[in-house]
């Protein structure tokens, strides 16, 4: 059973601010790294674009069709990783996934913490993780489209 | 009078509380709920009658066999098939279609064509893609218009001497369109082309008569008509079933096996290899009896009222666009709300006890046709009420306040 408080936490202001006006929602032509992600259960699709310079992410952007949670997550992602080294970005992606899967915080994730409202909604966790998985694919050069169902099937 | 209150009393699950609210179950196109008679028939079977079928001389084996065959006879009655030899049990609609694809598909040659429509469920697309790949036959798709209706002129144009089978939904799960199946079958029969109808979304909403329809195959699922999951039916015209090669091999589908040659069983057992889902057949039979007792004509009439009410009420919500506005529809209102993704809508509605489906409804070509990633879909059964539709509309208002920019 979900409570009013849990629903308000899922759609808290900061999440809705990002989903209504996502940051860096655009295509980067000639991006050095990019990857596509897909959630076959709800049809969400995302492409993450990265402009790299000396092992750092100079610019991050995305294009997506998706729900409020996936848009907010992608928007926060681009904010968080701009300026990071690729290793830091991968590290952060791992940390966010673990946090969304219910593991305790090991460091302050800032506004990304707001996404953990999905934990009360098992069917929605993958909405929040999709952009991060896609980021990982873009950074590690995995060729295929990332699917949120890859590990459950 | 249609006493929906009395009907609802027969369905235990309709009295569940969801997130502190009474359940408004509006996801019937995905799966129906079950009246107590179905649940009890299944437990009674397991408590008193279970054994393997067709195999033992002992009493329970005999009872189990009879129980299964009563389910088959009920399915024959439901479809008005000529004989129980034409009623093959499958796992559901999907397996029924795959059965035809795997058997009839063996005779396909390069250049042959299978004709489907743009509004099919994936289960009436992918099996044909698979056989077409194997045989170099072509899958030809009849387009639909912006209201979600099959373009009959195009259908007539695309039917040709190359067409080996027409496979179409009777009722679309994503749009609710009731297709003009009589016209579709008539045109194909003139050319001696067999027709398979996917009746998954039809059998619980109206009386279906395969003899009147004159189709060659008709598929449906138990769980979309108050019966259990894991059981469904393929009706096949006897002449066709006689002609088809076996589907799966195993026990029950044979009369005798030897290494010099195996003799296959008679219809319908020839297509039912292995120990069947006997309890499923029992539950299916009980579901059919329940639908018959309520009356399919009365159900159709009552649901038409619900659909009209829902179309008006949902359509009046600002920002709503109804996808699928065919002149003849059944049981489904698929819609989008400006500025709200269907997935978010589904979560906020569920929070208020209103269960709808969101996404592509296993009909991605339909979504692509309308330029959408997905829709929200409310789908109705005869146990739904206008009060539940009011709750859906009220929940939409909450979602708009919460989520719209
Ligand atoms: C029109 C239609 N065809 C086929 C199917 C597949 O049915 P099942 O999953 O029971 O095999 C469905 C159910 O989703 C459907 O709505």
Low-confidence spans of chain A: none
In CATH, what is the homologous superfamily of the largest domain in chain B?
A: Type I PLP-dependent aspartate aminotransferase-like (Major domain)
In whole angstroms, how far apart are the ends of chain B?
45 Å
User: What does the average pLDDT of chain B come to?
Assistant: 96
Give the termini separation of chain A.
26 Å
- Give the proportion of residues in helices of chain B: 25-40%
Mean pLDDT of chain A: 90
Strand order of the largest sheet of chain A: 3-2-1-4
Bound molecules: pyridoxal-5'-phosphate
The count of DSSP E runs of length 2 or more, i.e. the number of strands of chain B, is: 17
Description of the molecule:
- Helices cover 39% and strands 19% of the residues of chain A.
- Chain A is an alpha+beta fold.
- Chain A has a single domain (19-142), classed as Sufe protein. Chain: A, CATH 3.90.1010.
- Chain A has a four-stranded mixed sheet with strand order 3-2-1-4, with helices on one face.
- In chain A, helix 2 crosses helix 3 and helix 4 (86-100) packs antiparallel against helix 5.
- The radius of gyration of chain A is 14 Å and the shape is globular.
- The model of chain A has no long low-confidence stretch (mean pLDDT 90).
- Chain B has 405 residues and is an alpha/beta fold.
- Chain B folds into two domains: 4-30 and 295-403, Aspartate Aminotransferase, domain 1 (Alpha-Beta Complex); 39-292, Type I PLP-dependent aspartate aminotransferase-like (Major domain) (Aspartate Aminotransferase, domain 2).
- In chain B, helix 8 links the parallel strand 8 and strand 9.
- In chain B, helix 12 crosses helix 14.
- Chain B starts with a helix and ends with a helix.
- The model of chain B has no long low-confidence stretch (mean pLDDT 96).
- Classes of the chains: A alpha+beta (153), B alpha/beta (405).
- At the A-B interface, helix 1 of A face helix 12 of B.
- The structure holds pyridoxal-5'-phosphate.
- Residues 29, 92-94, 121, 123-124, 169, 173, 198, 200-201, 221, 223, 362 of chain B line the site of pyridoxal-5'-phosphate (PLP).
């Amino acid at each position: 059973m979900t409570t009013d408080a849990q629903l308000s936490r899922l759609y808290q202001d900061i999440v809705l601010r990002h989903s209504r006006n996502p940051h860096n929602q655009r295509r980067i032509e000639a991006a050095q790294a990019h990857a596509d992600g897909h959630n076959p259960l709800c049809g969400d699709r995302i492409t993450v674009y990265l402009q790299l310079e000396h092992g750092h992410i100079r610019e991050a952007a995305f294009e997506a069709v998706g729900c409020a949670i996936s848009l907010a997550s992608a928007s926060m992602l681009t904010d968080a990783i701009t300026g990071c080294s690729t290793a830091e970005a991968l590290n952060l992606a791992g940390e966010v996934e673990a946090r969304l899967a219910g593991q305790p915080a090991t460091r302050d994730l800032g506004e990304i913490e707001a996404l953990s409202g999905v934990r009360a909604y098992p069917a929605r966790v993958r909405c929040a993780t999709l952009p991060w998985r896609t980021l990982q694919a873009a950074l590690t050069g995995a060729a295929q489209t990332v699917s949120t169902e890859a590990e459950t099937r | 009078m249609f006493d929906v209150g009395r009907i609802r009393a027969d369905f235990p699950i309709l009295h569940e509380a969801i997130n502190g609210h009474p359940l408004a179950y509006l996801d019937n196109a995905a799966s129906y709920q079950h009246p107590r008679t179905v649940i009890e028939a299944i437990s009674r079977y397991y408590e008193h009658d279970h054994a393997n079928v067709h195999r033992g001389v002992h009493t329970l084996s005999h009872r189990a066999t009879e129980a299964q065959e009563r389910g088959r006879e009920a399915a024959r009655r439901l479809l008005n098939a000529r004989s129980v030899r034409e009623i093959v049990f499958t796992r559901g609609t999907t397996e029924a279609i795959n059965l035809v694809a795997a058997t009839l598909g063996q005779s396909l040659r390069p250049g042959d064509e299978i004709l489907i429509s743009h509004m099919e469920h994936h289960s009436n697309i992918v099996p044909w893609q698979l056989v077409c790949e194997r045989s170099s036959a072509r899958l030809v798709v009849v387009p639909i218009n912006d209201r979600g209706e099959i373009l009959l002129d195009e259908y007539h144009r695309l039917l040709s001497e190359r067409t080996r089978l027409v496979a179409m939904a009777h009722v679309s799960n994503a749009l609710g369109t009731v297709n003009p199946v009589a016209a579709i079958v008539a045109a194909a029969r003139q050319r001696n082309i067999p027709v398979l109808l996917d009746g998954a979304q039809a059998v619980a909403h109206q009386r279906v008569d395969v003899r009147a329809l004159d189709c060659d195959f008709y598929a449906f699922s138990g769980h979309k008509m108050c019966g259990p999951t894991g059981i469904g039916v393929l009706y096949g015209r006897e002449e066709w079933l006689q002609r088809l090669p076996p589907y799966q091999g195993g026990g029950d589908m044979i009369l005798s096996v030897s290494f010099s040659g195996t003799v296959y069983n008679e219809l319908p057992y020839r297509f039912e290899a292995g120990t069947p889902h006997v309890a499923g057949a029992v539950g299916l039979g009980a579901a059919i009896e329940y639908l018959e007792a309520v009356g399919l004509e009365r159900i159709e009439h009552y649901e038409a009222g619900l659909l009209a009410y829902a179309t008006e009420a949902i359509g009046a919500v600002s920002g709503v666009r109804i996808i699928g506005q065919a002149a003849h529809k059944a049981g489904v209102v698929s819609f989008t709300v400006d500025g709200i993704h269907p997935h978010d809508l589904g979560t906020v509605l569920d929070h208020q006890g209103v269960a709808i489906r969101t996404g592509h409804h296993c009909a991605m070509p339909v979504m692509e046709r309308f330029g959408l990633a997905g829709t929200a879909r409310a789908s109705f059964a005869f146990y739904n009420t206008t009060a539940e539709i009011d709750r859906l509309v009220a929940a939409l208002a909450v979602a708009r306040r919460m989520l719209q920019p």
